[in-house]
Structure formats: structure tokens, C-alpha cells
């Protein structure tokens, strides 16, 4: 029996090497894990609610804007873009980044992450207005967080204050909010508490009902975000799922998996 199991694992690894790009799989999975890890730490640090994997409708393009995290606290909302980059990063004059992977002799260009986060915040603010919530000036801000310990900066002085490097991310503490250059500053400080509570409740309701990515949760606190449109399983399971509306399903539990990671009911 053990010989069969070992042979199966060997065949699985060979098939994975032949038919899948390991780099793509690792990056996609680790990026999702990084987003959820950052969200969990932010909730712990600032006692707020982090909404992960939002897909906010953009009326200008007719598509949806993907937002990694929106953190809601008492008095502020923050759009957060998580960049799980590793290697040496330089910043160009136009704000774009060039990341050179260590030991692989290859580089990748990334559009200005701060400009992207700013655009995401603008689209989110318009979406909230459409749903009846007009935020006061300064209530909504944006940040770019880099949680990867293998991230290295050629010249950190080129980074705008909206970028939270890995070293800064590790130094963040609940009582040390000043290092974030105004983040969680309390836009309603000195304002009406009733108005603050009202906006806080409305934001939580709207974001809890906003479109989001599907998510696959695996043992070991690992996640994958995406749009899962197909289900493969036993014929009787597939037949039963045909009568279920996708919009009504909030959670699908796979009770066990086969040796090759294929779901069974």
C-alpha cells in the first residue's frame, strides 16, 4: 500500500512539472496568502474590519476594479494594495517599479502601485456614493504594503509616503500609528459621534454586500482568490448543483480530497 502511495506522489510531481508552470502557481498562491495575512494583522492592530478581494464596478470602463483590502475603522477607511514582490526594486521617474529577481537574472516591470491604489480609492468612493454614502474629505485614504521579507529597495528615498516597506510593516504596533504618516489619523476627530457611527455602519453594510472574488481556503491557513466557474465531481453531485443558484451560495465545503488534490464529496 505504501509503495502505491509513494508511486502516486512521484507521478503527481512529474505531471505538475510537465503541465504546470511552478512559478505561476507559487506566485498566485503566495499572493493570496499574503493578502489574507496582511488583512488579519491589520484587524488585530487597529481593531477594524478588513474586506478582502473586492471587485468594485467601474462605470467608466464597464468592468470591475479589483481591490486587495479595504480596512474600515472607527473614523477612517483605507484602500490597501498588497504587493508581494521579492528581489531588488528600483523606482523609475514615472513612478513604475522594476523588480529584479535574485539569482534568476530576469526583471519585471510593474505600473506605479501608488497610482493604482489611488485609482482604486477613487472608484470605491464613487461606488459608495452611488449606494448612498458620501464620505467626508480625508476619510478615505490609500496605502501600498509590501509584506515580503525578500523585498529589497535600491533607493528607499524614492518611495512616496503611501508605500509601507517590509521593514516598516514589521515595526508596526497598535500604539505606534504615527509612523504611517497620518494613516488611521481619525478623520472625524472632534466631529459628531453620531455621524461617525452612522457612516461606519453604512460602510460595513455596503462592503459586506459588495462583489468579491471567490476564495478557496485550504488547511494551514492558505487561500486562493479567483473566479471558480466549474465544478468536477461525482455525477450525482453535479446534478444536484445545477439546481442551486450561484448567487445564493456563500460557502462550499469539500469534505475530503484524493491523493492528487481533487475534491470528493
From TrEMBL:
A Pfam family that this protein carries is NERD
Q: Locate the NERD domain: which residues?
A: 30-147
PANTHER family linked: SI:ZFOS-911D5.4
Record-given protein name: NERD domain-containing protein
**What species is given as this protein's source?**
Citrus sinensis
